[in-house]
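Student: Hello, beginner here. Can you help me understand the protein record under this note? Any guidance would be welcome.
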Amino acid sequence: MRHVLLPAALLALLPASLAAQPRHVDVTASAGYYNPIQSLPSYRVGTETHGAVLKPGFVLNLAAERPVSRSVALRASWLHAHVELTTGNRADDLRTSDARLDALVGDVVLRTRRVAVVHPYLLLGGGVKHYGFDTEGLDDDAEDAFEDGRWSATAHLGAGVELDVYPIRLVLEASHYGSAYEPIEDDDIRAAWQNDLVYTVGVRIRAF
């Protein structure tokens, strides 16, 4: 009889335990600075090698986060950066066009103990990343090389702090997106690892 009552008691306590877990969803809207660490893969024009450089630019980020415990949460986010792409191999023959970066990632959020109004956290996850290009300002060879990028798998690591400054919560965050990138199927262009750093400041609100 005792063996029956113990599991029954545990099952009875389970709904109360689940109800005690946080059930809200937080939404964070942020903006900041996008910094690509290295150039995009080079491409060949005849016997010459031309470079392709993404310049730093403005970035927007929107994230939704659901806690699963006091120190762990699950987060989904969308990142969009608007930048410039410069191509060429000589200073007097450089071409510039608009470019963009989009990323969709999911993360596990690991929060440490709060210190006064400061609540640090770490991000660990991954998703997909995409480079897109407006090729109107480029020469023909660059247009062929950067007609558009593929969605590719990306790793995502980050760290941030949440500041409880009544009546709002400010969020300061730095993160890294790393992925292999290859513009098109071209024997003259090899895939290269791309590292993108993002620094943002935002506001977090409780949506529901």
